[in-house]
Amino acid sequence: MRTQVAAIEFGTSKIVTVIAENGGFNRCDIIGSGTVPYDGYQGGDWVTPNRLAQAVYNSISAAEKDAGTKIKDIYIGVPCEYIHVKHTEATVPIRGERGRVSEEDIDEVQDMAANVFRFDRHGGNVIHRSPAWFSIDNGKRTMMPLNVQGQNLTACVSFIVADQVFLDDMRSLMDSMGLGINGFLSSSFGEQLLLTSIEDREKPCIFANVGFLNTEVSVCEGDAMVYHAVLPMGGAHLTEDLAQAMEIRGDEAEQLKRCFVLGADRFDLVNPPEFYDESGRRLDYKAEFVKECMKTGVDELCGMIQMTIEDAGDAVLPRSQVYLTGGGLALIRGGREYLAGKLKRPVKVPAIKTAKLNSPVYSSVMGLVDLIFDSIEQRSPEQDTLPNRLADGLRGLFNRR
After folding, report:
1. Cα distance between residue 158 and residue 138, in whole Å
2. Within 13 Å, how many C-alpha atoms sit on residue 15's CB side?
3. CA within 20 to 30 Å of 1's CA: 23, 97, 114, 356, which one?
């Protein structure tokens, strides 16, 4: 039996609504999508709140038209600026038969961690609870502690908390459109689980999602996000620097930015477009000046990412893999290699194996969809066993209407 869901994700420059199905031979088929540009958010506020409702309506309508179906209820991805990550450790005595870890022990140690923050697991703003690792008697960290013998079980548990202001905005907005809300989930968390395997996450891995107006840096370990930060710089700032330096329009500067090839020693311009002033006269510019402008902006962005990774401290390892997503840097030729050189870490642009929306620009919305199907499967009695929950990498707490 195929299951159909709708989801909406808010980037810093676009709203994406998708209608997806799973079942049969495919994990996920996108049967309809609607991408609409809008002014996004900065510093936790919508840039143009009076235009938000129309942009959401247009995105949903476009997805419905593409899929040939109507949306009655929808899952909502909480953007990076509206989430906070907390994690803590807790220890409980192992009470399972013959001193072996039971499902009850694993639930108890995670509940104990929740009690440290006084979270209500059935309400509030907690949208995900997930373990980064378990340890028996302070031994080796593992994600599969079930039936291991010992005296005490320790867990590091992460909680993703959504801002109430975003939840309230969405409830009001969807009410006005006559749509029900199935749940709130973190698009960033879904992206991490989609693009990495549990083997990848045995050690901490770093995500750098360079968007239009901001850059999100997060660390994933086990089945959890253990560090999260949002930087006030993205691809738009590189475009703006070029526009100001050359006195050209933003769309022209964006076109010019895509002509750059980033190298370790130099920045090259390949087939740059010609620009004209209002009188139709071609604008002359010095290529070296433009290259230096671009280099200054890219170096600033890479430096901010590097400092943020350093701030993560013990959450990362010296050779932790970096996954580069978003369109702000990954779509510039040489961007991955340049960032790797600056960070002195391996950097990978992960591929999304889907016929539609397979660009790094759409990795977060595809992660959101994958997270939704994980959650649905775990609510099925035949799927809701501890090994399945841990192997799938999710302990979600839906904040419902």
Report:
1. 19
2. 24
3. 356
The continuous run of DSSP H or E covering 186 comes out as: strand 180-186
Chain centroid to CA 391: how far? 20
What is this structure's pTM?
A: 0.86
Q: Is the pLDDT of residue 397 over 60?
A: no
How far is Cα of residue 154 from the mean position of the Cα atoms in its chain?
28
Pairing relationship of beta strands 224-231 and 215-221 according to DSSP bridges: antiparallel
Phi first, then psi: what are they for 12, rounded to 5°?
A: -85, -10
- pLDDT, tens digit, 9 for 90 and up, residues 311-329: 999 889 888 999 999 888 9
Q: What is the DSSP string of 55-99?
A: HHHHHHHHHHHHHTS--SEEEEEEPGGGEEEEEEEEEEE--SGGG
Q: Residue 351 is encoded by which pair of tokens? A: 């591929």
C-alpha angle 213/217/223, rounded to 5°?
A: 130
Joined tokens for residue 322: 């970096």
DSSP state, residue 331: T
Q: Among 158, 139, 150, which residue's Cα sits nearest to residue 105?
A: 150
DSSP 119: -
| Alpha-carbon span 203 to 321, nearest angstrom | 9
Q: Round to whole Å and give the CA distance between 255 and 44.
A: 29
Query: Between the CA of residue 111 and those of 107, 130, 254, what are the distances in Å?
Result: 6, 11, 49
